[in-house]
Amino acid sequence: QVQVVESGGGSVQPGGSLRLSCAASGFTFSNFAMHWYRQAPGQESAWVATISTTGGSTDYTGSVKGRFTVSRDNAKNTLYLQMDSLRPDDTAVYYCTQPNLGVRGQGTQVTVSS
């Protein structure tokens, strides 16, 4: 069964940090680029970051550049998103996805509030 499961969300104050994880199973994780998306309340899903199969190439949406870092551990079949200097407008459900496989997790809630 192809699936991904996110974890690591929570509530933090502005300026804080969180590290999200996405555990993959049922497919050869190292063969696929992976993506993080987020969906804020009342808004459509928005792309956050992408990482290549080896992790050698990454890309970010403009609002998170310099604050978020996407990485992966292919030996552990796990994708990560390190989020620093969090802001209230980062509040959203974050989920990992591989569109070509049609796989997406349930997401993990991140809330940034004072």
Describe this structure in words.
The chain has 114 residues and is mostly beta strands. It has no helices and eleven strands. The strands form two sheets. Strands 2, 4, 5, 6, 9, 10 and 11 form a seven-stranded mixed β-sheet that branches. A four-stranded antiparallel β-sheet has the order 1-3-8-7, with no helix packed on it. The radius of gyration is 13 Å and the shape is globular.
Low-confidence stretches: none
* Total count of strands: 11
> Helicity level, as a percent range?
under 10%
Mean pLDDT equals 97
Shape: globular
What structural class is derived from the secondary structure elements?
mainly beta
Cα-based radius of gyration, to the nearest Å: 13 Å
Tell me the number of helical segments per DSSP (H or I, 4 or more residues long).
Answer: 0
Question: Which series of helices and strands comes N to C?
Answer: EEEEEEEEEEE
Distance between the termini: 40 Å
Strand content: over 45%
Largest beta-sheet details: 7 strands, mixed
Please give a quick description of this structure.
The protein is mainly beta and 114 residues long. The protein is 0% helix and 51% strand.
List the helices and strands and how they pair.
Layout: E1 3-7, E2 10-12, E3 18-25, E4 34-39, E5 45-51, E6 58-60, E7 68-73, E8 78-83, E9 92-98, E10 103-104, E11 108-112
Parallel strand pairs: 2-11
Antiparallel strand pairs: 1-3, 3-8, 4-5, 4-9, 5-6, 7-8, 9-10, 9-11
